[in-house]
Amino acid sequence: MPDHLCLSSQAMAKVLEWRHPKDGNKLKFVELFGKIIAAELALPVLCITAIIETIAYSIFTAISFTFSHLNKRPYEYFKELLKSSSFTIHWSAADVYYNLVYPHPSVNESEARRFGFATIYPKKFLEHISN
Question: For residue 35, what are the contacts with CB-CB under 8 A and spacing of at least 6?
């Protein structure tokens, strides 16, 4: 898990936390449906944002690598942001689908990384519907 999270990863966490609050309250069907649709509209926008961030962080990482013999901190910082934004591209693209079919999407980057965001969902979804 990167030490620094890119802006699109932080926004993903906010959208998915809002879509499914962890406070244990059951949402009414209409409210849940509205939140799912709103999240479904936000996720592609966040994917595009992550792509733009990845391009920018790639440039910043390359520039800071050039000067890393003087100071490694900027290079390490931009490298972590690059890892985060790259991961968020895949995470947001996968969640466009999983947001519709899975009742409890990963709400932050560390959770999505821990569960392997694209491989664990079908297994957990099948466990959920079989209970």
Answer: 18, 19, 20, 27
Buried b (16+ CB within 10 A) or exposed e, 31-46: eeeebbeebeebbeeb
Query: What total of structural domains would you count in the chain?
Result: 1
pTM here is: 0.79
Q: How far is CA 94 from CA 46, 65, 69, 102, 118, in A?
A: 12, 31, 38, 11, 6
* Residue entry with tokens 């733009």: 52
pLDDT in tens, 32-81: 888 889 999 999 999 999 999 999 999 999 999 999 899 999 999 999 99
Residue 122 lies in a domain: yes
Domain that holds residue 87: 7-130
